[in-house]
Here is the input.
Amino acid sequence: MRTLLKLALLAALIVATSSVHSTLGATAPVRVGPALTSIGPLAFGPDGVLFAADRQAATIYALNLGAQSAGARTGTADVAGITGKIAAMLGTAPAEIAINDLVVHPVSGNSFLAVTRGQGTNAAPALLRVDGAGSVSVVSLDNVSYTSVAMPNPAAASTTGRGGRTQSVTDMALSNGRLIVSGLSNEEFASKLWSVPYPFAAADRGASVEIYHGNHGQLETRSPVMAFLPMAVNGQPHVIASYTCTPLVRFPMSSLRTGEKVVGTTIAEFGAGNQPLDMIQYQKDGQSFLLMSNSRHGVLKIPTTDFGSAKGITERVGGTAGVPYEKIASMTGVEQLDKLDANRSIVIATTATGDRNLTAVPLP
Amino acid sequence: MTKRTGSCAFAAALLFVSGCSPAGPAPAGDIAFSLEPARASQPAFVRVSGVSSDEQAPQSLTVTVQGADVPVVGRTVANGASLEFHPAFPFDPGRPYVVRLDTSRWRTPRSPAVSEAVVSLPTPAETARVTVSAIRPSQDRWPENTLRFYVHFSGPMSQASGVGKVHLVGEDGEDIPNALLPLNVDLWNEGRTRYTALFDPARVKRGILSNREMGRALVSGRRYAIVVDADWRDASGRSLTSAYRHEFTAGPPLEHALDTSRWRVAVPNAGTRDALVVAFPFALDSALLQRTIEVASAERGPVRGAIEVPTDAMSWRFVPELSWRAGAHRLNIASILEDPAGNRIGRPFEADSMAAATTEGDPSPVPFTVSAGR
Here is the structure.
């Protein structure tokens, strides 16, 4: 997933971050027919603009999908064996297909999938749409208008260039006029959150802050963010983030100022050997919950009520301390997760036979 | 079923034509399928020739991956006496595709009404099989708080991550579970010849739940091996020539900031193009050393030259394009330079939050002077 709910939260987040935002200036030029070299993650803006990260080109695209925002029917219907179906449509074998992300369009309710076709030197990006009839379509980017912004390269010696460094984008969300991007480098153990104003400005490449994890004794370390969600905590805009080392942390959005040290406060820990995948927020029975998918720990349901009051976990606390959570035993093999509507999530999950199904699942 | 050999101009595949049709239509014998090879600006496409212009209903032509039941997405256009199917994504070499022309809705259906052919692009010539060429750090002693290591390959690999392909094995030969981070994000270099593997930082960092429960995956004094499975696919889909094993002993953790005052700089004389050599007390990150140190002259700014990092990453060599000129120089060092445990200049990976600097700016340059020599 990542984002329908993130965006629904924006209205609640319009307060404290104005000091973060820098100049607007001239907006980036609108062009047509983006030539993506890779795709994913994805994130929708509230007006239906689709943000697509192109890791290989170190560029974020904002795509105006126009008429392709919706298929013949609104919503998303289940598609069994979706990897095989996509492979057939793209003229290849299922083993050559990787689904990098899944997001739900905020208006049409159609699901959009970022796909890599081909796992070798022929690898190519593809964007697909699943509509309310379960019809799968390739979204042609030929006539799609877009703006884009280049991601910053870390400082490198001028005589040596970039070398073999690449930057993976782990998550994106639009919050209060800024696109926030988390990533992971294949070289330095970086933990920067980069944010850039949207609409993209021609002369503003955004700002980065280094995120630290500072809850074990007096030690603090850089901590790359795997997944995050803008969320109002105690009425103030915050980022709820999951680090690669699995703690769930919170930090105020207002801390995302250039050059300032941002230290997340741990509010839950989930244990090792795990990769946090996606997070969504939803309401049920008058209560707010976070639903978080993980590579090893499955899908966790976490009430957000205590996110503001939870004391930072310290070294002396044993076990899986922090805010309470519940493992959703019925949701297994979940690789992609987003919120479909008020009552359902949409997931791509592996089956016992190795297939992948796109399925709407009631929110637990 | 009618079976014949067609004019598949570029394919090694057999062609089958089969079908059924009502009595009396025109014969289908003049319809021919071919797979036109890729040219400079145009990927390979399917051509159906022998179709008169009034019959060119694009929807009558479908192409599917053999064995699949969903058509390949693409664009069918009429071109003279041919229909052309241009796939949205290039056809895979060696993969069989079924081309099917259904004339039953034509004004004059052919007999048989449905013609099918199986076409494929030739399988590319075999290239050299890929093998693991090295694992960095190359040392046989790794600090127990190592965060990251690199697997180097002799050729490009597939985009698949190393999850499940790279293992930490203990003295008993068994996999050590939860040692490495199961990351499904792309951590390849641009040519996909180097893969970055991360130890799970939740076990490396002191005080985190996993560290408290399981300790670090590496324990000082014990022997380990990094094992790379042979069934990791290369860019052409083939497995590696063999598994790879790098054995090492875990050593004490490196928990201190890098200290440039402990670097030893061997400075060449002016007038030569001899290498400047910087020796480190510990191995630094072999990849970061390629791009984080710059030589600059106090008077003339950055000095162009070639960087060499030996396999042990214990030193850094710089050979200038032009002869050294006498005078004050410095090494400018980017803040992101790390050792394999994530320690940076002036800041250990696990920093005392009370003592740590609030930000990580670029470290102070390391000065050195090139002498005029004799």
Notes: Chain A has a mean pLDDT of 85. Helices of chain A lie at 4-8, 82-89.
